[in-house]
Each structure stands twice: as structure tokens, then as C-alpha cells.
Amino acid sequence: MHRSVARVVPLTPGVELESKLALSEFLLASTDLEASSRQSLDWLVANANIRQALVALNEPSHPNLLLIAAHGVSANAAADFNVTRDETEHPLLQAMARPEPTFFDHASSIRSPIDTQLYHVVPLRADPGGACQGALVVSSSGPELPADVLWVARVLAKQVDRLISRQTLAETRFGEERMLLYSIINAVTDPILLTDTEGKLIIANTHAEKLFAAPEDASEGWRRAVALNNMLFSAALSTSAVTQTDLARRELLLVDPLEGSDLLFELLSSRAKDERQGTYVVSILRNITDLAHAREEIEESYRTLRVAQAEVRDERHRLDLIIDSVVDPILVTDQEGDIVLMNEPAERLFNVPASSGEAPQRRVRANGANLTSFVSNVLTRTGEQRYRGEIPFSDPQTGRLLPVEAVAGTILSEQGELVWVVTILHDLTEAIEKGRLYEQLKFASAELERKVQEATAELAQQNELLRRQHIALEQASALKSQFLANMSHEFRTPLNAILGYTHMLLHGVTGTVTDPQRKSLSRIDSNSRHLLALINDILDITRIEAGRMPLNLSSFQIPDLVHEVMSELEPIIRRSNLTVTTRMKGKLPIVKSDRQKVKQIVLNFLSNALKFTPQGSVTIGMSYDKSERCVAILVRDTGLGIPLEAQSKVFEDFRQIDSSPARGYGGAGLGLSICRRLAQMLGGTIKLVSAVGAGSTFTLKLPARPPRR
Ligand code: ADP
């Protein structure tokens, strides 16, 4: 390394005074060190034929020499420039310590970014004895230092001194202003923070520090609360302030680190840009916890109010429904008697369309006046809860008088003042009509009762009459029976005598009888027998009627009885040329009954069948019905038959289908009526099935044991 004090070359002739003046003016106007240095180097390159040059600053606050401007130096070389101020042995620092410029003829040893072998280092001093504030390094072709370089070094030194002392002053002033700013933001009761965009704290006032910073000796809970607040704050910023450049407003819920209670803040954050600090965020937190409470309370009372309003509305609606559903007119009037509420039926009395004419309007006015006077009556009667009266209303449309009963009740306020009068009107028309109808009904009912009584009395009278007639008839019947019984007896005695004598005459007791005499005697005999039979029949009927026919019960076999009947009628059967057969269904039990009477019935059936069957056959059937415990004896013929209308009559006394004297059959019409009476006595029945031309079937049904009496 070769180093020597530079020799100053006199001022380059031809260098324009003007360009120097221009540089001086620029430096005077500039407050920027970098710009000033660069301008100075540019001047040297332009006016002093310098190829490479740099300006390094020696700032007391900085540990390194600062390369603030360079010309002809590669970017890498500039970046490598690193000279610490402690390296007192460094040739550059040593050169700067000298009062004069130093010439170097070997560059590598001082790690200068200037890569030429030869260069000058000119210390920058404002005053000859003052501190070195930097160095101007210029490349050189020889040891001579151009006077222009020296001039530039001198003006640049002055400029550096001026700007550095100005910067120091500014910094001191800035420090003061900073303090002032701190006291201002601390005086604000809202937490204020300056953060980077991620929420990292740069500056905070004491109120913010309470929320976002914990002292060394803070409890665990405090630390955790602070950590949580920081997290919440960063999250809030990342969703608001960072995405917007304008003022962002949002709510932020934080924790009071000392109390542990919730604190609600309104976070106002805005982004700001600073050349030195870059982008940062200013946030102001306004405590709105109480505001939120107040808002909640207001909301709650508003909600309560809304609910109450809805309830009142519902109540009113319900009331309207109730009032409208009542058929009777209902009116609510205030203290002045003005109607404040009424249902539809009431409207019909107090409202008519304007188009309905004068008369209805007049009636409505009259109704209103009547109501008002009624209500004023109610109002004067203080102390009474109910008031009842009649109001003479009229139907506005028809003018018909409406008798109305009004019931009024008063409604008092909580202070006991009368607020409303509720009046219910009840149309009495119907009630009056009902009353009238009721009176009519009562009269009609009384009339009816009277008539019923009369009829009942008449009926009782007739009943009595009938009862007497019945007794008289019974007596007459008994007398008749008695008479008939007596008469029959009286008839039979002489008739038996006739029969006895006829019999004797016929058997020649009184001498020989000629044939014509015999013939006549036979006629007397048969007619007498017929008469006797008739008298016997009448006697039977009268006996039965008089209840004097005795029952003689015995056990007997039905088939035996039937055979007995058949053999008794044998001569008639033979003469009739009819086939008479018996038919038995199943086994018949021994019957206990009045054998004589049963025989009389069967005998009557068979003789009728023989009598009214000109040809064909007669069947006698016998059967037993186990379930009914009844025996049945039927006599079926193929004879004339009995027309339907005569079938019930043949059982009446003296009834014959053909009662003309020309009829060809004997009999008095008493046989079947006696049979029916006898069957009744035995607890049995007689049934007839017959059709004209198809024959008849008479059936006697008998209980196998006599019924209990
Ligand atoms: P009568 O002594 O006249 O036979 P009944 O009382 O026995 O009296 O009979 C009454 C009438 O019933 C008879 O006159 C006859 O007209 C009719 N009648 C009875 N049985 C028969 C029969 N089997 N077929 C047709 N008619 C009959």
C-alpha cells in the first residue's frame, strides 16, 4: 500500500462558474443528504472527469460507515462496503482522521468499492479543526488532487454538517413532540393503539396497555386475559381494518384483565401510511359496555312494550269477537254519554246509511236521545253497580216500536273514577209474544182439561150402565140356560115315552102290526130319535154354558176309541160306499182325558165327513207331538169342502152352510159348536183346513195329560 497526502491541483480552467453556482444552489435548497451527495458526485463526473466516486458518512449513532452515494461502483461492490467505526486501524478511517486528503496508490488493501489502483480520500469537515463527518473517495489517474474535487469536498462537507445538525435538531424536537403526543393519548380515556397490520403493538396509551399488556408480576389469570384480548384484537383487525383503507367500525368484546368481566368496545381502526414505518393501523377502542347494557335494557323494555301492545290488541280483538257474537245489542258509552263501542245488533238501532231517508234518521236520533237519558240516569246513581230500566226504542227502518229492557253496568278506573257505562239491550218483543202465547196455551189447556173431565164422567156413567147391562145379561143368560135345561128335561120325558111305546108297538107287544103301520111307526121312531138328539145337543150346550158339564177323566188308548167310533157308525159307513181308513203316525201314548167327550167330538167329525162326502174316501189319522205333548186326531174327507168365509161360522150355534129348507142334509147346526166347547173344556183345540170341492180336514189337538186348573 502506498499512501501520501494529496497534492492539490489548481482549479481546472474552463470549468464554468455557472455549474458551480448551480450545484451550490441545489445543495442550498436540498435537505436530503443522499440527494445532495449524489448531485455532488454527478457534478464531479461531469466537470472533473472523475470515473468512480463515493460518499461515505460517519454518523455517531451508527456503528458503520454509511455509503450514501456512489458513481461507477457495481451494486455488489456497494453492498460489500462494510467498515465498522471501531476499526481504527482501517486505512480509510485513518485517512478520515487526517486534516488533509490522502492519496492511495494501492486500492485492494482498504476494501474500497472503487476498483482503480489510484484514488483520493478527502475527509469531509465543515471547519478545519472540526470532526470528520464523512469522506469523499474519488478515482484518480495520479497523485494530483484536482482542485474541483477539493471544492466539491468542501461544499459537500458544509452540506453534510448542515443537514446532520438539522436532523439532530429535528430528532430532539421529534422526541419532545413524541412525549407531548404520549401525554395527549394517555389523557384520552379510551384505549388507543398503533399496531402493524397484523395487530403487533407499536404504541399504546396506558388504557390500552391495561388491556393488552401484562406487567412482570402479573397473575396467571391476568396474563391469560391479556393474551386473549390480543388474540381477539388481532382477529378483529384482520377482518376489518386490513381489508379496508377507510375508517372501520365494529364491536369487540374483550375481558377486563383485573376484574375478569366482559367489556364491550367499539373498535374504530384506520390504516395509515408512513414512509419510515410503512403501513400501520391506528385503533381507538370506545367502551360501550354500559351503552350495550342500556341498549339491552331499552330493547327489553321495547320488547315488553310490544308484547303488552300485542296483548292489548288481542284483548281488544277478543272483546270485539265476544261483543259481536252476542245477539243482544251492547253499547259502551263514555261519561258524556257518547258511544265509544257497539256491536252489530246495536249498530242497527243507532246507525242508518245517509241515503236511507229522513224518517229512519229521525228515529236513530230519537233512539240516541233515549239512550243518552238512560245513561245519564245511570251516571247520577253513584254507588250502584247495576241499573235496569226500559227504553222505548223504535226500529229505524220500519218504525216499529221495540220494547227494550236495558241493563247497564259501570266500569271504574283504578282511581275509582267512572270511565265507561256498558249497556246491554234486550228486545222484549219475543218475551211479550211468548207471554201472550203462554196465556193462550194456559187457557186452551184448562179448556181441554174441563172437556176431558166431562168426557171421563160420561164414560164412567156409560161404564156403569154397561156393567149393569152385563149383569142383567148374565142373569138373563143364566135364566135362559136354566129355562133351556128345564125345557129339555121336560121335552125328553114325553119323548122317551113316545120312543118306548113306538118300540113296543114295533115289536108287536100290542098285537101284530101291518106293513103300512110298521112303516109309519118307523118314521115316528126316527123323528123322535132325531128330536131327542137335538134336545140332547141343546142340553149339552146349556150345561156347558151354565158350567154344569162335569169332566170325567180316565186313561185310554186313542186307537181303541177311534175303532169304537167306526164300529158305531158302521151301518152308515156301509151305506155311504166310501172307503174309510185309519192311519197312525208313530206310537201314541195312553191319554188321560174325558173319554166320552173325546169320542163325541170324533163321532161328530166322522159323521159330518160321511154326510158331506158324496164319493171318495175318509181318513182318520192319529199322531203324537212329543215336544208339545199333544195327541192329534184328524178326519180328512174328499167331500164338498167349506168356503173360506164360512169356515169360522160353522163353529157357531145353529150354523149351517146351506140352511135352506131344501138342503139334503140333516142336523141342527149344533154339532161343531158343541165340539169346540168340549175341546176347550179338555184344554184342546179344533183346526179346520178346507177348500170348496177339495174336501175338509178337521183336527182335534188334545193334551196327553189334562191341564191343571
Ligand atoms: P150339522 O148338525 O148341521 O151337521 P154341524 O155343527 O155338525 O151341524 O155342522 C155345521 C155345518 O157345517 C154343516 O151343516 C155343514 O154345512 C158343515 N159341515 C160340517 N162338516 C162338514 C164336512 N165334513 N164337509 C162339508 N161341510 C161340513
Give structural notes.
47% of the residues lie in helices and 23% in strands. By secondary structure, the chain is an alpha+beta fold. It has 5 domains: 3-184, Beta-Lactamase (2-Layer Sandwich); 188-287, PAS domain (Beta-Lactamase, 2-Layer Sandwich), CATH 3.30.450.20; 326-427, 2-Layer Sandwich (Beta-Lactamase); 428-549, Helix Hairpins (Orthogonal Bundle); 552-703, Heat Shock Protein 90 (2-Layer Sandwich), CATH 3.30.565.10. The strands form 6 sheets. It has a 6-stranded antiparallel β-sheet. The protein has a 5-stranded antiparallel β-sheet with strand order 10-9-13-12-11, sandwiched between helices. It is elongated, with a radius of gyration of 79 Å. The protein starts with a strand and ends in a 6-residue tail after the last strand. The model has no long low-confidence stretch (mean pLDDT 85). Adenosine-5'-diphosphate binds at residues 604, 608-609, 612, 637, 639-640, 642, 650, 655-658, 667-672, 696.
